[in-house]
Amino acid sequence: MFVDDYNFEAYNKVGFKRITDQDTDVMKEVQMKIPKLSFQQWSDYVFSLGKVSPIPKDIQFGQIPEGVLRLGGTFVVNGDDIVYQWSDKIPGDHPDILEVISIAIDVSQQEKKSIPPL
Predict the structure, then answer these.
(1) Within a domain: 22
(2) Which of 45, 60, 98, 113 has the highest local Cβ count within 10 Å?
(3) Residue 11: CB atoms within 10 Å
(4) CA atoms of 102 and 25, how far apart (whole Å)
């Protein structure tokens, strides 16, 4: 989980861009796949979208929230080390989830091996 405030300082420090700053040629490279969700899963997604969207309370009608324009990413972190980083090219772009889980499991197992027995 990664949390930032509406100044987006942490986003900036890790190099995440705004969608408006992304190179259009890079955006064309992304192959989006529509997730296979049931009707209930799509309904749950649509109804929860407003609750999880980064929309400040003082936004005026017609303004696009800064958080909506921000691209995110995925990290695997081990202590102070970033083991894996992925920066989204467009909203909805994400890494191979099984690969990320595999990396996290590998790091976790290496960590277990390095802990001396009591």
Answers:
(1) yes
(2) 45
(3) 20
(4) 30
User: Which has the closest alpha carbon to 54: 44, 46, 41, 64?
Assistant: 64
How far apart are alpha carbons 35 and 94 in whole angstroms? Answer: 12
Q: Is the pTM of this model over 0.90?
A: no
Tokens 């277990």 belong to: 112
The verdict on residue 64 lying in a domain is yes
Domain that holds residue 99: 9-114
Residues linked to residue 102 through DSSP beta bridges, in sequence order = none
Higher pLDDT, 117 or 76: 76
Q: How many separate domains does the chain show?
A: 1
Dihedral sign for Cα 81, 2, 39, 64, please. negative
DSSP string covering 62-114: TPPPHHHHB--EEEEEETTEEEEEEE-SSTT----HHHHHHHHHHHHHHHHHH
- Residue 109 inside a domain? The answer is yes
Strand (E) or helix (H) holding 15: none
Average pLDDT, the chain: 82
